[in-house]
Write a structure and sequence with these properties.
The chain is an all-alpha fold. Helix content is 80%, strand content 0%. Helix 6 runs antiparallel to helix 8.
Length: 225
Amino acid sequence: MKNWGLKIISAIALLAVVIFSILMLKTISQYLTFEKTIGFLAFKQQVVSNPYWMAFFYIHIFSITLCLLVGLTQFSTQFLTENGKLHRIIGKMYVYNILIINVPACFVLGLFSNGGIIGITGFLLQDFLWAYFTIMAVFSIKKGNIIRHKKEMILSYSITTTAITFRIIKNLFYNESQHDYELFYGLNVWAALFINLSIAYAILGQRSLLSVKRNICSKKINTGR
């Protein structure tokens, strides 16, 4: 029953990521005009004249959706079994996207984040954990530790999807007339990080429990008990 519960939760999470990735594509499409007063940029007028900040901004927004969608394929056991080579290629795309493109970009963007010191520290912590979990996942698979690799990839992807959780919280709870934008923004950064890591560790805990039960059942069968 618990196994089915985990599958249902995973299916719902998968559907949510797909839907919100598509919605993010729609949001991101407005920036194809490269105007400096639209969308999120309307709140960043103090830095839009900085060509380096703008470059990192466009690099991040035009690559993050690919990172979200590519990461989805990495958690299917059936896909991995039937498409081992493709799994490795897509995995490398995910890792390179994060470590070479988005971690450096998000570090710069994080330094100029909305939300004051709360938002800045939250974004920088996200960026550090994103890099850490992704790097550890790479080291684990190189050592042949598949179980640990899967765990760290789940944690890495939980950071990747904070962008989705952040927007869900904002759309559901932010009220311009009732909330201070800077404070809400900063707290939202931390809330998205906390929620996603909590879900990731809950999934890992459930998987560990199922693994232990399988091992116990296997031992009972082998010993004839």
